[in-house]
Amino acid sequence: MQIPKEKLSWLYETMYRIRRFEERLLEETVKGNAMGVAHTSDGEEAGPTGICAHLNEKDWIGSTHRGHGHCIAKGVDTKRMMAEIFGRHTGLCKGKGGSMHIADFSKGMLGANGIVGASVPLAVGAALSARYFGSDSIGVSFFGDGATSQGVVHESMNLAAIWRLPVIFACENNHYAESTPVEYAVAGHDIADRAAGYGIPGVVVDGMDVFAVYEAAGEAVRRARAGEGPTLLELKTYRYHGHYHADEPLKYRLKEEEDLWKKRDPIPAFEQRVVAQKLMPASELEATRKKIDAEIEAAVKFALESPLPPVDELYTDVYVNYSNPVQGLR
Amino acid sequence: MVATQSKQADPMGPGAGGPGREMRYREAFNKTLRDELRRDPSVFIMGEDVAGGAGREHLGIIDSWGGPFAATKGLIQEFGAKRIKDTPISEAAMVGAAVGAALTGTRPVVDLMYFDFTTVAFDQLLSNAAKSRYMFGGQTKIPITLFARSGAGTGHAAQHSENFYSIIAHIPGLKCVAPSDPYTVRGLLAAAIRDDDPVIVCNHKKLINLSGFVPDESYTIEIGKGRRLREGNDVTLVGMSWTTEVCKQAAEKLAAEGVGADVIDVLSMSPLDEGIILDSVKKTNRVVIVDEDTPRCSMASEIAAVIADQAFDYLDAPVKRVTGPHTPVPYSRPLETAFIPDAAAVVGTTKKLLGLE
Fold first, then answer.
1. Which domain holds residue B327?
2. Could you please report the per-residue DSSP string of B54-86?
3. pTM to 2 decimals?
4. pLDDT of residue A323
């Protein structure tokens, strides 16, 4: 598949932006600057990048508790993301959501979601809206291997299939639901096999290879926009860190396994390929890294210097209107 | 998107003289859905059997029944399958997709059939419908309406007879209304569909065939307003949904014995019109709250707490609750009848409260 030059640059910049954002976030979390838990996705960058490369701002994505990569790939501002995770009033959600609830509706990002599988029907609903209004927007639902054991995921796939909705089910199989291995918890061989049960295509994709993801997603997006219905993509991938910042994954997986996956890291693999094939010069890659490093430093600085939300924010945005407010009794 | 604003009506009733006619609760419900679908093209309805027989158009089958309560019967002929969407039996996906659709510009109305079935979709209600606006810092609104049939008394047994309004009212981000007659169902359902927050509309099965006067012209009733159905100075009877009928019957019997009851119809569980209840209690100094739900952590408990907190000095007697027992709803008629608070129980409790027994 021929990828336009500017799209290649975007793929690299986006993967590196996700990586750098999460590396710095982990450092700041350990320092105590993030107020809650951080679920990082380093290692999984090729998935959201290769898929969102085909989307525009009018398309919608649903996300997970491990959603920084989805946000960044959909074009969400890293400054306001960092501020949100630092609990600041300048965050995308005024500091009321945190890492697990980052949303940016202006970018078509329906929100990270703390309930495993719960965002899958949201993307289906967004696809339903697109169909309802006759637009060519599509919905993409990101979810993990753990979510495939949730009933609502099955219900959503069935609903999308019978209505032939323009939606892509992007399962990021990182092989662990917290610490529970996929081969223990998920029946059957590949998760993609489940697509057969709904009469939709199911495709296993190397989730460490952004070129492979880009190609598979291209066909899924084409199908969705052409009214041919949903596609299930299973991205085989790996998260380098634990379930969250303080998790020690070597308690439940082997160093040898981690090393095998890290050898297939999507970012160096991309660099080697584009340089070897003379698609991008090494100097451009280096310039991109420098630019993104500076952007992420600026995001950390912005977050640290931003004000905390005023306590009045506790009471705002529960409803659009509510005639008889209930204050906490104390 | 929204056409003309229709008037906001007094929850008390239409008054005399306006054009309108007698109709059943279910007919008023169906008429309101039709009005709102005509009024706003972003409104659509989905649920199991909202038309019935979906996908059989080639066999000449369109709209087999409009669901077990015929609430949506006949709508598909006017609005088509795009706006009257039969779904599989997938409450979680249905409510979740409704939230996703609402987040992206439509105004979905979901028929959950029985109030009990909210539990099958509860994560979507609690984690997505109720919380999205707040946890996303007010970026969005979730204009969805869910409707469902509540209540015992029709032989539907334990899993089709729930009254747990307090579970919904407990959740910040959700609203819950329980219209108690054809007039209020028209006004409150219209208000719910036009509301920008998630609203659950509960229709008690024993009310669905009741008749009453309904104006021709479309109107809304403000969500969060209760109404006083009868004036009296000796006791306040607080009813909700079916128990509003029970309170009216009890007030008749009490009047025959010289006891004047103020009858308050809650109508809206959340927001709750605390003022109308407190004003009444401050006048009568005695209150009996009648709730068909099981007693622990019920709407009756909540209303009792509000009264104890804000009208303690006005009370001449303990706050009394008449509720269902702490059991599931039984099937066999004598057991089911015993489950539901009736006028005799309300009269008995009131007379004890007044020292008349």
1. 227-353
2. TT-GGGT---S-SSTT-TTTTHHHHHHHHHEEE
3. 0.95
4. 86
In a domain, B153, yes or no: yes
pLDDT-derived band at B6, boundaries 50, 70, 90: low
Which residue in the list B156, B160, B204, B336 is annotated as catalytic?
Answer: B160
Residue B91 among the catalytic residues: yes
pLDDT band (50, 70, 90) for residue B4: very low
- At A25, which helix (H) or strand (E)? helix A5-31
Is CATH 3.40.50.2000 the classification given to domain A5-315? Answer: no
**Three-state helix/strand/coil letters over B297-328:** CCHHHHHHHHHHHHCHHHCCCCCEEEECCCCC
Q: Give the closest of A115, A121, A323 to B223, CB-based.
A: A323
* For residue B109, pLDDT beyond 70: yes
Residue B258 lies in a domain: yes
**Test mutation, A89, A105, A128, A141, chain B, max B CBs within 10 A:** A128
Segment 241-270 of chain B within 8 Å of chain A by CB: none
Write down the pLDDT at residue A329: 63
User: In the predicted model, is pLDDT for residue A125 greater than 60?
Assistant: yes
CB A129 within 8 A of CB A116: no
Q: Is B227 on the interface with A (CB under 8 A)?
A: no
Query: At residue A179, does pLDDT exceed 90?
Result: yes
The residue annotated as part of the active site, out of B91, B162, B302, B336, is B91
- Is B55 inside any structural domain? yes
The answer to whether residues B74 and B30 belong to one domain is yes
Q: Is B138 on the interface with A (CB under 8 A)?
A: yes
